[in-house]
Amino acid sequence: MHRFVRHLILALIVGLILQGCSAVRLGYGNADSLARWWIDQYLDLSPEQDALSRERLARLFAWHRKTQLPDYVALLQQGKAFVAGEPAASDALRLGDDLIRRVRVVAEQATPDVADLVATLTPAQIDRMAARFAEKNADLVKEMRLAEGEAAQHKARYKRLLERAEYWFGSFSNEQESALRRMVEAQDPGHQFWYEERLRRQRELLELMRQVQRERPPRERIIALLRDYAARFDLPTDPARLARALALRRASAELAVAIHAMMTAAQRDHARQKLDDLIHDFTELSKAE
Hints:
Largest sheet: none
Number of strands: 0
């Protein structure tokens, strides 16, 4: 369940950012309803659980609007500095770490409420979540082309990166597309590793839920279990896998800097305008009642 909070907020910060100004306002205004619908798809909430989710999510997003959106403006300002300057890989890593830190703040805020919902789950609901995980994993395997070899995975990564880069910077020239393809092909896509990490997080979450359902521990114990899960959510604890994860993150940061370096002045202006629009929207949203 804690995974839901992390992904919901990440979708809020990243997903809405990638959709444009009107989508940000519309999406944020319905974020609690969307979150409740998403949770229900995995758990098939009972009427009592739905009422609990409705109350707690409304409270969470009211808190988020007032306390977190102004902080996201600061993050977007960092993005503007990144676009305007000549950043290094360390700058890209710092920006990513700052995003993760903000997600952690919201996850921690939500943890007691998540604990209250986890305490009500039935074995059937946990089994339903496991089945939904399996369905989503199968979709991801196709999207990432995991069964087709490294060349196919490079193609999948190139397609995704080009779509994201063109959102921010505008259309790429043929030369820029070719350069991006070469850069992607020169790196380990890391798809299999991150897929294994996804499976680890899912497995640990299901184990946590089954433990709670089986042992019925007190609320404070459930909160402690969720916090322990969150602490190892982003990165593995195994030293060898941690080193691999950090190396892959570093490679992604280097790729982001390389993409930025080949952008034209007009393309950088395109990105700056998008960030300015988002800063305006987040500022206005934080003031709304």
